[in-house]
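sanity check this record:

:::
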Amino acid sequence: MSSFRPSKFMLVLVLISLTLLTISQTKGFAAEKTAVNVYDSSGRLVNTKLADGTVVEYQYDVNGNLLHKNINMLMNSGFEIYTGKNGVADNWGDWKSAGVKANYQVVTAPVSSGKHAQQMKISNMPKDGGANFFQDISVSDGQLYSLSSQITIANLNKAKLIVNMHYFDNNNSFIGSETVFEYGGNASWLSINEQVRPVAKTVRARLHFTIIALDNDGSGTLTVDSVTFQKGERSNLLINPGFETNTRTSGVADGWGNWESAGVPANYRVVTSQVSSGKQAQQMVISNIPKDGMHTIFQDVAVTGGQPYTLSGQIATENLSKAKVQVIMHYFDINNNFIGNETPFEYSGNTGWLSINEQVRPVAKAVRARVHFNVLAVDNNASGIVKVDSVTFQKGERSNLLINPGFETNTRTSGVADGWDNWESAGVKANYRVVTSPVSSGKHAQQMSISNIPKDGMHTFFQDVAVTGGQPYTLGSQIAITNLSKAKFQVIMHYFDVNNNFIGNETPFEYSDNTSWKSVQVQVKPPAHTVRARVHFNLLASEDKASGKVTVDSVIFQRIK
């Protein structure tokens, strides 16, 4: 992004104001040296700020039950706490240049998550005038951080939004800045995700959401929600991609929107059973809807036209009749004109959790992409249930078709990593663990053990992947085997058509000895009419009383171009 360069006069005013704010340490400054707890009006703990500046966020469902804890570096990042009178949420500060009138409100509508959001309205602003709200964050120089949020912009005229960072050293001297995001159009809950790296000697960063006037009489309304500032790179451009946060009553998870065509009733639920990852997934149900009726969830994301992106996730369908699931992309320019679309994925059969991975490329001049998961009726009286989980939208081409291929995400108690499933033949006891040693890459690997199992007994973990019949694929991984006796390790592929008929299989790899980390690289080719492949890592007993332990890591399944 290009840097924000106000006039010299405005730059002097900005720097003077920053110095005054540094001295006065407004409520946007957050550098406490002891732990601080923050409670909401119901007495619930919502933030704990640790001495190192790290903030633990506690998120609750609509009934007040604790859902999960998140690590953030911002206090009151969802603007849920407001005890002041100036319209700015607690722990945030505000600033405006000379002659600018800004109206701040903590609003209950529109909101993306929770019950509140921060809004700022400006009108009749002179050229180069600016107004913002901000929060100071304790940071380390050279450390990479990720900033994400959702924004709504309305009635923007002769102005633009900039999200910018100011950096300060240990003497409170201003030592650098960067503009991480700009947007010059109207938008409704647009997800943004950017990486920042404070300059050398930075100990404090100030995050601003600013509206700047490009000409006299600049105006607009900005609403911000769900701000996250975290250490490290967070490449997923979506907010709430696993549907884990659900503070609404609509049945649609926070950060997502929904739409239905005429005559199609909305029927959404955030479900807690039979999920792929975490504790929740998004469900859509259709029943008796007319031909060409549509029922969809979506999220808008800031993008760069002409650049490649990868969309992945897992879907599960049941009782699907006269309907199909689609992933649809819509593209918009800065003036909110619809300028293109593509449908990278369709599926018209029933399936358990199926991994999908598609490449998309927004058209030139696109600044906003809308990611849809859609159910479309192909005939009258269409029906079905669709669940979606673990959605990722990333910059660049990510060729691995598997979800959680390195087993790094493990929120379950079964011992099987998120995104994967398991099966055992009769009389074989399940024994799976996500281990931290041995590992080949990252911090975790998937392990399975067998002991005293009967001849032909099987113990396997697997993942289903959307494929194209007749297309060649490469499967690779790292395996480690210990104490193998009367058994062998196998990589097995099963193939299914759109009606869930089993139409073929192959065993591209077998190994019957112990080994430290060994690379496996094979090629497979699903038969014609295949739409789903099941990748198994299997232990097979070749005699009675078989035993052994296998650890798998770094699995790659990709198309051969």
About this structure: The chain has three domains: 8-231, 257-395, 421-559.
